[in-house]
Design brief:
Strand order of the largest sheet of chain B: 11-12-14-13-16-17-22-23
CATH superfamily of the largest domain in chain B: Alpha/Beta hydrolase fold, catalytic domain
CATH class of the largest domain in chain B: Alpha Beta
GO cellular component, one term (chain B): peroxisome
CATH architecture of the largest domain in chain A: 3-Layer(aba) Sandwich
Oligomer: heterodimer
Strand content of chain A: 25-35%
Radius of gyration of chain B: 22 Å
Strand content of chain B: 25-35%
Number of strands of chain B: 25
CATH topology of the largest domain in chain B: Rossmann fold
InterPro entries (chain B): AB_hydrolase_fold (IPR029058), Acyl-CoA_thioEstase_long-chain (IPR016662), BAAT_C (IPR014940), Thio_Ohase/aa_AcTrfase (IPR006862), Thio_Ohase/BAAT_N (IPR042490)
Pfam family, one (chain B): BAAT_C
Structural class of chain A: alpha/beta
Protein name (chain B): Acyl-coenzyme A amino acid N-acyltransferase 2-like
Radius of gyration of chain A: 22 Å
Distance between the termini of chain A: 63 Å
Shape of chain B: globular
GO molecular function (chain B): fatty acyl-CoA hydrolase activity
Number of helices of chain B: 6
Helix content of chain A: 10-25%
Largest interface: A-B, 38 and 40 residues
Number of strands of chain A: 25
Shape of chain A: globular
Amino acid sequence: MVQLTGTPLSALVDEPVRIRITGLTPFQIVTLQASLKDEKENMFYSHAYYRANKVGEVDLEHDSALGGDYVGVHPMGLFWSLKPEKLSTRLLKRDVMNSPFQVQIKLCDLMLPLENQVTSTSKVSLTLERWYVAPGVTRIQVEEGRLRGALFLPSGEGPFPGVIDLFGGFGGLLEHRSSLLASRGFASLALAYWGYKDLPSQLQKIDLEYFEEASNFLLRHPKIFGPGIGVIATSKGAEIALSMAVHLKQVTATILINGPSSIYGFPHVYHGHTYQPIPYSIQFLSTNALGFIEFHGIYKEIGVEPSQSFLPIEKAHGHFLFIVGEDDKNTNSKEHAKKATEWLKRHGKNNWTLLSYSGAGHLIEPPYSPLCWASKIPNVSTPLHWGGDVIAHAAAQEHSWKEIQKFLRRHLIPMVTSQL
Amino acid sequence: MFQLTATPQNGLADEPVHIQVTGLPPSQMVTLKASLKDEKGNLFRSKAFYRANEAGEVDVERHPSLGGDYIGVHAMGLFWSLKPEKAFRRLLKRDVINDPFRVTLDLYDSVCLQDSTTAQPRASQMVQRWFSGPGVQRKQIREGRVRGALFLPPGEGPFPGIIDLFGNIGGLVEFRASLLATHGFAVLALAYFAYEDLPEKLLELDLEYFEEAANFLLAHPKIQRPGIGVISVSKGAEVALAMACYLKQVVATVCINGPNAVLDIPLRYRDLLLMPMHYHREHIQTHVSGAVRFRNGNRDPWNELNQQSVLPVEKAQGCILFIVGENDECLDSRAHAEQAMEQLKSHGRSTGKMLVYPGAGHLIEPPYAPLCFASWSTALPCPVLWGGDPVAHAAAQEHSWGEIQKFFRQHFRGTRGKL
């Protein structure tokens, strides 16, 4: 009798699942398909072909996929190779507290996708729950002063290290990374700064005092210990995080994922001082073979003195972790990180680490998140090409997530020294 | 005042257009956009950003595009970088006689990213792109079993005859035949399934059908004797190679991105039956866009087990030109063409020639056709990945079209008749 097992059935989304099949005929070729319906009813699918061994078993932990959405030994391949049915749809969990994503794994004889999955009948399937939050984590809607966001606290008494979580060009409030960080022991504030409630509806000048308010809010919290906080930020958020690290002494650990090394597009303002941006040079955008827009060329510094455009990051008190996807088609992250780290070196600073991932794209997310290769952002009618090679991107997500947590612990949790 | 010119305004689809802008402020950034609606109402668009020179001019033939759908100096970039508004649509002209494609060129005096209808262009031109020249005649063919359309150049002839074969798209694809006819060849666009009373699905390739078509051409008063040519792509190129091997009527064959062995379905010719190569469906991969990449189906022409499917090219009496796109995601065209060339060499034949185009994909078409990177396939629920790097693919199309015509002319020069 054919049996399909997945362990654990219910887990955090950044935890691996072990998938096994028994009871097949020896050397039988089977198709495993994963499907997921997101909160907007968009369908995502992935599939891979495996050959059973001589006793009719398949174990994704050590068996190689022969083809499909990935090849080779990839125990979590069915998860990170999920593709939207509707091209350029991004998979994003909105309600992180009350429900998991449900992933259905089906065993089929059919050779998907060549044969229509709607008609494929399968006797053998299982449903896995993928949670964005661990039991005991609490979510607090934040509406203090100007601040808008959601604070996630780990279970227990604390105190916990505090982190501000910033995303970029999507606007609104993305909570999925903060809820996971809280599940891993960090108090994380998912902070919105545009396109959310009464915040500006369009990305405008960046008022660093808003982010200073957020830092102070975190440090005031009884369950959060200081004296420093961390910032984890992607894309435009990383540009803001860089500015925060320069101006705010409280920021002692800054993680910059695929961000620029200077201020672009809109000025940063702090206590009456305006830091002028380098304008985006839209004329240098490119497109891929399907017509999706690649923005990495728009960061050219034309007619601007390098010294005046560069953020004085040598003045930052804390540590930096630069995370670069070398196949990023949205931001030329590799060049930006190189500029930033060379600048720091030139100023005699070694408070930084650079993790550069070959084949990874712009949207480096927590592990096992499907590669979002292209999707739309507000105000742009054509989808953006984010880049990334499916397998390499998945490896980058796995590796960087561990490094992110190590980095935050190392720089936020004070060393407890012996009193001997 | 801004002036946008495009010359010629009415031209053949395989002829270049010279686009110029004058009367701009010096160093002004401009956007040039092209758009086209196909016969089904699908919209295709492209754009490029230019900076006017000191004299306020932009000459697409000489000046580089700074960004957009192509970068650098590409005189015809706006045409070959056209992209469907709805992903995976393929641009294909169906009525090649009565109607051209109409491409609208718009000039904006700024860097205009959005495709909204609110921004108004400062100047517009419309160019017509025809798939047949004046005097080219089209005749619907229903002779015996033969189904297709014959395109004759103007004049008395006789003209060299060519059969044009497309692939698994099925039906009748005419635009390449009509263009070749405009260049002096009599071309029979030949359907072989999913057309009129032909089989709906391809279950077997019967070479006698194609022999009938070859004989039909050779019996035509306006077509030269004693031999015909074949131009073909993909599955059509498999058929064409088989024709070259077994039919002495075939004297010049162009195979674009085709296999050198029988694939998927058997090939029959009189009492000869060739079984297809072993195919490993479990090796097929999916591209990140969701399009299926057939290349890894492990159709390995060098494998011992597959030798009974390999076509005996050493038997071909005429010349063969293999055109290969190295970035073909549907088939490892290079491996197939190389094996065929190796086979010819080992039999002391020097009748083969191979042109390999790095960066070109599967669907190598006449010049300035937009790169079709992936498109919906009639038989499948998912799109098929064809591959290709836009710039390299465009260059391959331009170069190979000239080579194809040269190849046919060289071959037919020895025989009687006018070109």
